Amino acid sequence: MGTYTHDLLEDLLGHGIFAVDGEKWREQRKTSSHEFSTKVLRNFSSVIFRKNAIKLGNILIEAAENNHKIDIYDLFMKATLDSIFKVSFGIDLDNIWGSSKQAVRFSRAFDDANTLTSRRFFDMSWKIKKYFNIGSEAELKKNMKVVDEFVYNLIQIKTEQMHNITDFLKTESGNEDILSRFLQSKYKDPKYLRDIILNYVLAGKDPIGITMSWFIYLLCKHPEIQEKVAKDIKEATKMKKEIKNVVDFAAYVSEGALNKMQYLHAALTETIRLYPALPLDPKICFSDDVLPDGYHVKKGDVVAYLPYAMGRMEFIWGDDANEYKPKRWLDENGHFHPENPFKFTAFQAGPRTCLGRDFAYMQMKIFSSILLGCFVFKLSDVKWIPRYRTSINLHIDGPLDIRVFKRFGLNNCEI
């Protein structure tokens, strides 16, 4: 990562795993690897993902019944933030309903801080602005104050809960959320916990919400593929009774059913190939080296690879590189066939391979299977052309307005 990138990211991510090297990185990598591999966290997370997918489904039912267009991008970003906060902190943010003014304020501040931090990569004067507290740096400081106050308050609440073990064991999440598990170990410093958790939030909110948004956009542009995905979901869930609401359908989305959704997995992966959440990934040379093509790099040089560009290169993916073709990921038996991570670089490769890859696929497949199993999606404006918003991640600039239509005789429901 190097000191250059660390300095750019430190105000937002502190000494979290995405902003450090050496022993701090190895320690967090080891701890995170253990957490992501635990059955407790996996089971707890899947329950949360289902609940939030159902909440989102109920909003879509209302939009379908009233023939209202809806910004699915905004909804996905809110739903994924709710999910990662519950998994990370064990606390219901309820951002999707906007019932908490503090949560809405945090969400906006976090998104703005993300965008402002990304601008540092292109603004050579950012340190001067920070020193004098002017312009974009003054705005970043204001947003980070909102973010930090919110996060530190949650850490204090969770710490107090754990001090009263009786109350703590009665809470819904118990010790299943990530923060509780860290607090039970040797990690007690609020600043370090803040850094770790915000890195989890960044990894679990934007990439999932962004990918789901691009996924729905591509399915709207390719209705024949949307129907193939819906068929794959229907066959995997093996429904045996009439579905009247989203909860009914979600009950069929078991772990076994998710594993059978090979075409859905391929369609999501093809989305990530064309629209990787992290379009550009810079690295700092640890020492002098020679790249495979013979180019010499020196210690401290910045070398960036671009998953966005690499995913569209014809000499890597063939003449149809710019086409959306989920079947490229399936073998002759219709089973998903993964590519070499040094070819499909969206999740990185080698020692820094994304630890949350399977975790991310689980969330995306739960959301996708429940929503596409219950609804048909169409663009509100078929001529609409999406634009990108400058940020660390590949955001859509502006709303993604769609219209939804019910696949079954769905009724609204509460959970």
Automatic annotation (TrEMBL):
Q: Which residues bind heme?
A: C354
Q: Does the keyword tRNA processing apply?
A: no
InterPro entries given for it? Cyt_P450 (IPR001128), Cyt_P450_E_grp-I (IPR002401), Cyt_P450_sf (IPR036396)
Which GO molecular function, any one, fits this protein according to its record?
Answer: oxidoreductase activity, acting on paired donors, with incorporation or reduction of molecular oxygen
Instruction: Name the Pfam families on file.
Output: p450
Report the superkingdom from the record: Eukaryota
Query: Known CDD domains for this protein?
Result: CYP86A
Q: Note the SUPFAM superfamilies from the entry.
A: Cytochrome P450 (SSF48264)
Q: Which cofactor does it need?
A: heme
Q: Which UniProt keywords apply?
A: Heme, Iron, Metal-binding, Oxidoreductase
UniProt-listed PANTHER family? CYTOCHROME P450
The UniProt entry's sequence similarity note says:
Belongs to the cytochrome P450 family.
Q: What is this protein called?
A: Cytochrome P450
Source organism of this protein record: Lactuca virosa
Upper classification of the source organism reads: Eukaryota, Viridiplantae, Streptophyta, Embryophyta, Tracheophyta
